[in-house]
Design brief:
single chain, mainly beta, 7-stranded mixed beta sheet, 4-stranded antiparallel beta sheet, about 45% strand
Length: about 130
């Protein structure tokens, strides 16, 4: 069983930056693929960024490419999402997810169905 706890959300003005963190329990964190997803009010949960279990592959939603960066620190059992040049449309609850399948060791999946564990979410609000 893996528990995920997100932190770092908050209120920021457009153009500003935030760094989200996701702390994971469990001894096998280093082999899990990790993803960030977000859900705005009235919308479905959407992919933001992912990093493979090996850390060698990343993927991003088109809407955040060039602005957001996902990274992982296996020694700290933590994955990060650095968010720069934030826009009001980035406002959402951000969720961290972990995928334990061996298929994700070298693949950064954008599909919610491939992730087994989810955090409770952290709110990000970007004001205009």
């Amino acid at each position: 069983q893996v528990q995920l706890v997100e932190s770092g959300g908050g209120l920021v003005q457009a153009g500003g930056s935030l760094r989200l963190s996701c702390a994971a329990s469990g001894r096998t964190f280093s082999s899990y693929a990790m993803g960030w997803f977000r859900q705005a009010p009235g919308k479905e949960r959407a992919f933001v960024a992912a990093i493979s279990g090996s850390g060698g592959s990343t993927s991003y939603a088109d809407s955040v490419k060039g602005r957001f960066t996902i990274s992982r620190a296996n020694a700290k059992n933590t994955v990060y999402l650095q968010m720069n040049s934030l826009k009001p449309e980035d406002t959402a609850v951000y969720y961290c997810a972990a995928g334990s399948s061996g298929r994700l060791y070298d693949r950064a999946s954008a599909s919610t169905r491939e992730y087994d564990y989810w955090g409770q979410g952290t709110q990000v609000t970007v004001s205009s």
